[in-house]
Please model this.
Amino acid sequence: MPSDSTPAVDPPFAALLGRMIALLDGRLTPRQREQLAAAMPDILWEFPDVDGRLHLRATATGLEVAPPGGAPPFVVRMPRATLEDAAFGRRSLGAAFLAGKIHVRGMNPLRLREFIMLVDPLLDAYREAHREFIPASPPPVP
Model:
């Protein structure tokens, strides 16, 4: 896992993730943003296969990529390929979770609904960002 003094994610993947967050923010309703901000204002996404981390901060007014640092109470850890498999319909996040490909820490079971409502818009946003960054190539196959 990178330290706070190293880059959080390799630049192309970091740019793709940043665009994904911007697209996701545009897909959420004000009510969804409020629910997410109340349930999980800080989410750390870790991608150990690319030595990457993305700190997502949710407020009632929007989503943003926050600077690395500290340990948010909610952490999702998965390989980049797992995110791409889900985004491109090769494997669901539920199946990946059951197979041990996704690890989650800090989730209050009462807040699961807010996290689940984020999944489809997040995958849609990742697909769109991927097409913007890599329009001529098909998504990677593991």
